[in-house]
Design brief:
Number of helices of chain B: 34
Strand order of the largest sheet of chain A: 7-1-2-8-9-10-11-12-13
Largest interface: A-B, 58 and 51 residues
Oligomer: heterodimer
CATH class of the largest domain in chain A: Alpha Beta
Radius of gyration of chain A: 21 Å
Helix content of chain B: 40-55%
Number of domains of chain A: 2
Number of helices of chain A: 10
CATH topology of the largest domain in chain A: TIM Barrel
Strand content of chain A: 15-25%
Number of strands of chain A: 13
Largest sheet of chain B: 5 strands, mixed
CATH superfamily of the largest domain in chain A: Aldolase class I
Distance between the termini of chain B: 15 Å
Chain lengths: ~300, ~800
C-alpha cells in the first residue's frame, strides 16, 4: 500500500453500525462541515479542529483526582461541588488536561489520521462488514475533504469493501477530487433538509439552491451511484405538509422512487452539554399520527418511503 | 418483510400450568432414599466386580425408592412432587458428617438424618472419592487445593471437580432405547456373555442384563401407580388417560417405542435411571432430540395420531420433569461452583446429518418453540449452526434470542467438526457430534468419558509471578515458585518469563492431581447404564468408567481456565502504566492493589482505561494468544494413563464468581472479590468497539494450528435497542452468518434487560462503557444521562 501524505481529522470510527438493507457497517466520522444545522447530532464535527469534551459522568471528582486543574495552562478548568467544569471562554482546546485525566472524562474529539490508519482500524472486524455490509463515510461533511475522502474510499474499494457516504450535498461538484470521491462511492445518502431556500438558510446557515442543483446533477452524471435521498424530520422546522410535499416532488423529479425518512431524537442534547455548546430546545417528538400523515404525503406523490 | 411461517399457537392446558407453578414454588429437597438402598446393596456385594455391584445396587434402589405420580403428570418418572435432588453417598457423605452441614438447608427431617447416620455414613467412611483422593495427595498439592489442609475449605487456586461429580458430563444414546428397547440391549448382553470367557467381561454383561431388567421393573412400578389412579378416577377421560399411561409404562422402555409419546417416556425413564446411577456436571444431556425423535414424530403426524398441540403438551411435561430434578450439593465446593441450582440438560437442535446435509426438520422448530416458550429455565437449548443452516430456522433462532429470557447457545459446526476430525474422528462421526454439559461436544459412541475437570485460577498465577510466589486466595503460604520480588522485574518480557514459570509449575501440579483422580476413579465409580448405551463398551465388555476402552477416543484431563480476560487486561495494564508510560513503579502498583485501590481511585481509573482485550488492539491480543499457546502446548503434551491428551477449556460455569470472591484486586482495575471474566469473553463492558470487534479479537487470541477439543465460551452483550425489531433480527442473523465462517466454538447473545440497565445506571462508570450504536451518530466517549433508561429501542421508538 503506497503511503499518501493526506491526513484528516477523524472524530470517531464506529463499528457495528447496522444500516437497514445495507448490512453491518463501520462508520467513519470526519470533522468539518459547511452547515450549521441547529439540530445537528454530531456538533463536534462542525469545525475542522480537535475539540475538548468534558464528560462529567465519568469524572471521579476533584478530591480523588483533580490533576486536570493543575495541568491547564489557561486555568480554564475549575471545580464545583467536587465535579470539574470547563470555562469554555478560556479553553484553547490545547489538550494538556487530557493526558492527565485517568478516567476518560476529558478527551479530545478529533484525531488526525492518514487514510491508511483509518482503514487499519476499519478492518478490525472486516469479516462482519464484508458480509453484505461495508464502510460509511459520515461526519461532519466528508465532501469538505474531497481528496481525503476519495483516498479513503479508494482504499476501501481496493480491500473489497462496499462504500457508502452520507452528505448534506453542499460541495463543489466540479472539483476533480469530488468527482473522484463520488466515483469511488457505491451508495450515497443525500440529505434534503428543506425545500424553501430562506427557511433552509435560517435552519442550517446556507442556501439550498446548490444542494438541490447537486442532487439533480449527481442523479444524472453518476448513474452507477445508488442514490438515496433522505430527510430528517425536525419538528417545527420541516414537518409541515407543504414542505414534505415539495421535498417529495424534488425527489420525484430525478426519477427516484424511494425516499428515506428519519425522525429526530433528542438523545444528542447530552453531547452539546459535554461539548459546552448551546442547544436550542424544541419538542423532541412528533405529534401522534404525524409520521403516518407524512408518509401518506410521500406515497400520494408516488414515492415509497423507508423509515430509518 | 416476509415473516417466517408462524407455528400454530399453543395453549397450555390448566393442569400443566398448575404443575409448572407448583414446581416453581416448591423448595428443593434432598432425597436420601437412593443413598440408603444403594448402600444396603453395596454392603452385600463386597468382593464382586465394581460394575456388577453398581448395577445391583442401582437395581436394588430402583425397586425400592418411593416413587410418585401426580394426577397432572403426563409422563411418569419422578421421585417427588416438587423439586428434589439426590444424595450420592459415594461422593458426599463426608460432607454430611461435617459441622457446617445444615439439614434444614436441604429440607431434611430429623428422621432422614437419623437414617443416614445409622445406615449410610458408617459404610462409606474412608471409601468416598474425596477421602481417598485427599489421602493420596502429596503435601505441596494439598496446600494448593485447601487452606490449612482442611478439605472443607477449598482455596480456589486449583480446584478439582472430579470428586464433586461422577463424571464431567455426558449425553446418552437414547436412540438405542427408542429403537430396540432395553430388551434388545439385555439380549445383546446375554448373547455376548455366552460368547465370552473372560470373567470380568462376563461380569460386565451380567451387570448390563440385570440393570435392563431392573429398569423394566422400575417402569412397572409407575404402571401400578397409574392403574391405582385409574380406579379412583372421577372422569372417564382421566381414567382412560391413566390406563393408557399404565399400558405404556409396562411396554417402554423395555420394548421398542411405537410412537412419539412412547419415545419421550422411554427417554425420560432412561434419564431418570441415569440420574440415580451417577451425577454429571449439568446433569445428563438430552442429546440430539430433533434427530432421534424425528422418525416417530413424522410417523405419528403423517398418520394423524398426534397433533402439534398434543406433542407440545408432552414436551412441556418432559421439561417439567427436568425442572423438578435439581443438583443439591452438600460439599462446600459443589455449593460454591454450582450456585443457584443451575443445571443444563443440553438439548441439541439443528446441525448436520452424518452425510453432511442439513439436519433441521419440522421437529427442530417445534422443539425450539416449545423449549423457548416454557416458563422455567429448562431445558438448555443449543443450536448447531453451519453454513447451510436454513434461513427460516436461523430467523426463528434469532427471534427467540430477541426475547432474551431463553436465548439459546450457538455451536459452530464448521469449527467443531474440523476439530473433531483433527483429533481422530471420522467425518461421519464428527458431523454427528452432540452438545453436552454447558458448551462441549461429544461423540457419544466413540469418546470414552472423562474425569471431572480441574479449574485453574489464572489471575492467582499472575499474582504469584508478581509477588514472588504468593497469591491472595491463600496469602500465608508460598504457593508458587520463588521467582523474585516485583522490584526486580525490569521489563515486560521478564514479567512474562516469571508468569510462564509460575504457570508451568502450577500446571504441573494440576496435572499431577488430575492423574491421581484418574487413577482412583475406576476403583470407586462404575457406570453400567451409560456403558450399556455405548457401542464400544458393549462390544468389548468394559465399563466406560474403567478409563481405557479399546477403539475409544480417550481424552485426558480437562483443565478449565478462569479469568482469561482478567489476566490479559492486567498484563496489558502493567505493560502500559509501568513499562511503557512509566506512570508508576511495579511495587507501587502492587501496594495499591493490596489496598484494594483504597484512596487511589485515580490509579484504578488509569487501569480501567488502559487498552483491553476485546477491542482489536493487536499487541493486547498477542498477549492473549501467547498465554493460550502456553496453556495448550503444555496441556496437549500431557498424556494420561489411558492415552488421552490433556485439554484446555474456557468454561467457567460459576467458578469465575467463586474464584473472584477469594482473590484480591487485579491490575485491570477490578476490585477484590469481584467476578473474574467469563470464559474467553472480554471483561464486562470493556468492549468499547462493539460485539463484532470483540468477536474478531477472540479470533485473534486463538492458536488455530493447535486443534484443541476444549470449548471456548464467548458471550456477546447487546443493548435491547441493538437487537429489537426486524432490523435487529437482520443484524443478529448477519453476525451469526459471519461468526459461523470463523473458527469460533460457542456464542451466546446476552441482551441487557431494563432491570440490568437500571442497576448499571447506579455505577456511572460501567454504564457509560456501554456500547451505543446509532447509525450516523458518533457516540464514543460520551455519556447520555438524559437517555438513561431509554436505551431500550432508541432507534425504533417511533415505529
Amino acid at each position: 500500500m503506497s503511503h499518501s501524505p493526506l491526513r484528516c481529522l477523524v472524530s470517531g470510527i464506529q463499528h457495528f453500525s447496522p444500516c437497514v438493507g445495507h448490512g453491518l457497517r463501520t462508520t467513519i466520522f470526519l470533522a468539518g462541515c459547511p452547515l450549521r444545522c441547529f439540530w445537528c447530532c454530531n456538533p463536534e464535527c462542525r469545525i475542522n479542529r480537535p475539540v475538548l469534551v468534558c464528560n462529567m459522568e465519568k469524572c471521579i471528582g476533584r478530591h480523588a483526582c483533580g490533576h486536570c486543574m493543575d495541568a491547564c495552562p489557561n486555568s480554564a478548568i475549575y471545580s464545583s461541588k467536587n465535579v470539574i467544569r470547563v470555562a469554555r471562554d478560556r479553553c484553547r482546546n490545547c489538550g494538556a488536561c487530557v493526558s492527565r485525566c485517568p478516567s476518560g472524562a476529558l478527551f479530545m474529539s478529533g484525531r488526525s489520521m492518514s487514510p491508511e490508519e483509518i482503514m487499519e482500524d476499519v478492518m478490525k472486524d472486516k469479516d462482519y462488514i464484508m458480509n453484505g455490509g461495508g464502510v460509511t463515510l459520515s461526519g461532519g461533511e466528508p465532501m469538505m475533504h474531497p481528496q481525503e475522502s476519495a483516498e479513503i474510499l479508494r482504499l476501501a474499494h481496493s480491500l473489497g469493501l462496499h462504500t457508502a457516504m452520507e452528505t448534506c450535498g453542499f460541495f463543489d461538484l466540479d472539483a476533480p477530487a469530488a468527482i473522484a470521491a463520488l466515483q469511488e462511492t457505491d451508495l450515497l445518502f443525500f440529505d434534503i433538509k428543506h425545500s424553501d431556500p430562506l427557511i433552509h438558510r435560517r435552519g442550517t446557515g446556507v442556501d439550498n439552491s446548490r444542494i438541490l442543483c447537486n442532487f439533480e446533477r449527481i442523479s444524472v452524471e453518476f448513474p452507477h451511484l445508488e442514490l438515496h435521498s433522505r430527510t430528517l424530520i425536525v419538528p417545527g422546522f420541516n414537518d409541515d405538509d407543504a414542505t414534505m410535499r415539495n421535498i417529495a416532488r424534488i425527489v420525484k423529479r430525478t426519477g427516484s422512487f424511494l425516499h428515506i425518512l428519519e425522525v429526530y431524537s433528542g438523545i444528542c442534547q447530552d453531547k452539546y452539554a459535554q461539548l459546552g455548546m448551546p442547544f436550542s430546545q424544541f419538542p423532541a417528538s412528533l405529534a401522534q399520527g404525524r409520521m403516518e400523515a407524512i408518509m401518506d404525503i410521500f406515497q400520494e406523490e408516488g414515492l415509497s418511503v423507508e423509515l430509518h | 418483510m416476509k415473516r417466517a411461517q408462524t407455528p400454530v399457537s399453543y395453549r397450555r392446558p390448566s393442569h400443566l400450568r398448575r404443575r409448572i407453578s407448583l414446581i416453581a414454588s416448591s423448595r428443593p429437597r434432598l432425597l436420601m432414599d437412593r443413598a440408603v438402598y444403594f448402600t444396603e446393596s453395596m454392603k452385600e456385594t463386597e468382593g464382586e466386580e465394581l460394575p456388577l455391584r453398581w448395577a445391583r445396587a442401582l437395581v436394588h434402589a430402583l425397586e425400592r425408592v418411593p416413587v410418585e405420580l401426580s394426577p397432572d403428570e403426563l409422563l411418569v418418572g419422578s421421585l417427588g412432587s416438587g423439586r428434589y435432588g439426590i444424595f450420592y453417598p459415594e461422593l458426599d457423605s463426608v460432607f454430611v458428617e461435617g459441622e457446617a452441614f445444615d439439614p434444614e438447608e436441604f429440607f431434611l427431617s430429623e428422621r432422614d438424618m437419623e437414617l443416614v447416620r445409622d445406615r449410610v455414613l458408617p459404610y462409606w467412611r474412608g471409601r468416598t472419592y474425596p477421602e481417598l483422593f485427599y489421602a493420596e495427595l502429596p503435601d505441596e498439592i494439598r496446600n494448593l487445593l485447601y487452606i490449612d489442609d482442611d478439605p472443607f475449605h477449598p482455596a480456589f487456586i486449583v480446584q478439582e471437580t472430579a470428586t464433586v461429580r461422577h463424571s464431567l458430563q455426558w449425553a446418552l444414546d437414547y436412540s438405542k432405547v427408542i429403537r430396540r428397547g432395553f430388551r434388545g440391549i439385555a439380549e445383546d448382553a446375554e448373547r455376548m456373555k455366552e460368547m465370552s470367557s473372560d470373567p470380568s467381561k462376563r461380569s460386565f454383561y451380567t451387570a448390563v442384563a440385570e440393570l435392563c431388567r431392573g429398569i423394566r421393573r422400575f417402569s412397572e412400578r409407575f404402571a401400578s401407580l397409574a392403574e391405582e389412579q385409574a380406579l379412583g378416577a372421577n372422569t372417564e377421560e382421566f381414567r382412560e388417560n391413566r390406563l393408557e399411561l399404565a399400558e405404556r409404562c409396562r411396554r417402554v422402555p423395555w420394548e421398542p417405542s411405537g410412537s412419539f409419546v412412547d419415545a419421550l417416556q422411554a427417554q425420560w425413564i432412561t434419564q431418570m435411571v441415569s440420574r440415580m446411577e451417577a451425577e454429571y456436571g449439568g446433569n445428563v444431556s438430552n442429546g440430539r432430540m430433533d434427530q432421534y425423535l424425528w422418525p416417530l414424530y413424522r410417523h405419528d403426524r403423517e398418520n394423524g395420531l398426534l397433533t402439534e398441540q398434543r406433542a407440545r403438551e408432552y414436551l412441556d411435561d418432559l421439561w417439567c420433569h427436568i425442572a423438578q430434578f435439581v443438583r443439591l450439593k452438600p460439599s462446600p465446593t459443589g455449593a460454591k461452583i454450582y450456585e443457584d441450582l443451575a443445571h443444563w440438560e443440553f438439548t441439541t437442535l439443528g446441525g448436520m446429518l452424518p452425510s453432511g446435509e442439513d439436519a433441521t426438520n419440522e421437529l427442530s422448530y417445534l422443539l425450539l418453540h416449545s423449549a423457548s416458550e416454557f416458563p422455567l429455565d429448562y431445558p438448555y437449548v443449543g443450536i448447531r449452526i453451519h453454513r447451510d443452516t436454513p434461513e427460516a430456522f436461523l430467523r426463528d433462532v434469532c427471534r427467540v434470542t430477541q426475547r432474551n429470557d431463553v436465548s439459546p447457545v450457538l455451536f459452530n459446526d464448521e469449527t467443531i467438526v474440523a476439530r473433531q476430525r483433527a483429533n481422530g474422528a471420522t467425518l461421519e462421526e464428527a458431523r454427528d457430534y452432540c452438545g453436552s454439559g454447558y458448551s462441549e461436544a461429544r461423540l457419544i459412541n466413540r469418546d470414552t468419558y472423562f474425569v471431572g475437570a480441574t479449574w485453574l485460577n489464572l489471575p492467582a498465577v499472575l499474582e504469584m509471578a508478581l509477588r514472588d510466589g504468593f497469591c491472595s486466595p491463600n496469602p500465608c503460604r508460598r504457593m508458587g515458585l520463588p521467582t523474585g520480588a516485583a522490584a526486580d522485574i525490569r521489563d515486560f518480557s521478564s514479567l512474562m518469563t516469571c508468569f510462564r514459570r509460575q504457570l508451568l509449575h502450577i500446571l504441573d501440579l494440576s496435572f499431577r492431581q488430575q492423574a491421581i483422580l484418574e487413577r482412583l476413579r475406576p476403583q470407586i465409580i462404575a457406570s453400567p447404564l451409560l456403558s450399556s448405551l455405548h457401542d464400544l463398551c458393549m462390544k468389548h465388555g468394559v465399563d466406560v468408567a474403567a478409563g481405557l476402552v479399546p477403539e475409544g477416543r480417550s481424552i485426558g484431563g480437562f483443565l478449565g481456565i478462569i479469568g482469561f480476560a482478567t489476566v490479559v487486561d492486567s498484563l496489558a495494564a502493567i505493560d502500559t502504566l509501568v513499562f511503557r508510560e512509566r506512570r508508576l513503579s511495579l511495587p507501587e502498583l502492587l501496594d495499591i492493589l493490596a489496598a484494594n485501590f483504597e484512596g487511589h481511585e485515580d490509579v484504578r481509573q488509569l487501569c480501567l482505561n488502559c487498552p483491553k482485550y476485546g477491542n482489536g488492539t493487536a499487541w493486547v491480543d498477542a498477549i492473549g494468544r501467547d498465554i493460550d499457546r502456553m496453556l495448550l502446548k503444555r496441556a496437549r503434551s500431557e498424556v494420561n494413563a489411558y492415552g488421552g491428551r490433556g485439554e484446555i477449556f474456557y468454561v467457567p460455569v460459576k467458578a469465575h464468581i467463586a474464584m473472584g470472591r477469594v482473590s484480591g484486586a487485579t491490575p485491570d482495575g477490578r476490585f477484590a472479590g469481584n467476578n473474574f471474566s467469563f470464559g474467553v469473553t472480554p471483561s464486562l463492558l470493556v468492549g468499547k468497539l462493539g460485539p463484532t470487534v470483540s468477536l474478531s479479537s477472540e479470533m485473534a487470541v486463538q492458536n488455530p494450528d493447535i486443534p484443541s477439543l476444549g470449548a471456548r465460551v464467548m458471550f456477546s452483550t447487546l443493548l435491547p435497542g441493538q437487537a429489537c425489531g426486524e432490523a435487529g433480527l437482520e443484524t443478529l442473523m448477519s453476525v451469526i452468518r459471519t461468526w459461523c465462517r470463523q473458527p469460533h466454538w460457542f456464542l451466546r447473545f446476552q441482551i441487557l434487560t431494563p432491570a440490568e440497565l437500571t442497576v448499571l445506571r447506579n455505577s456511572p462508570y460501567e454504564y457509560n462503557s456501554l456500547f451505543l450504536n446509532i447509525p450516523g451518530f458518533n457516540s464514543q466517549g460520551y455519556s447520555f444521562p438524559s437517555a438513561a433508561f431509554s436505551f431500550k429501542c432508541p432507534l425504533h421508538e417511533a415505529r
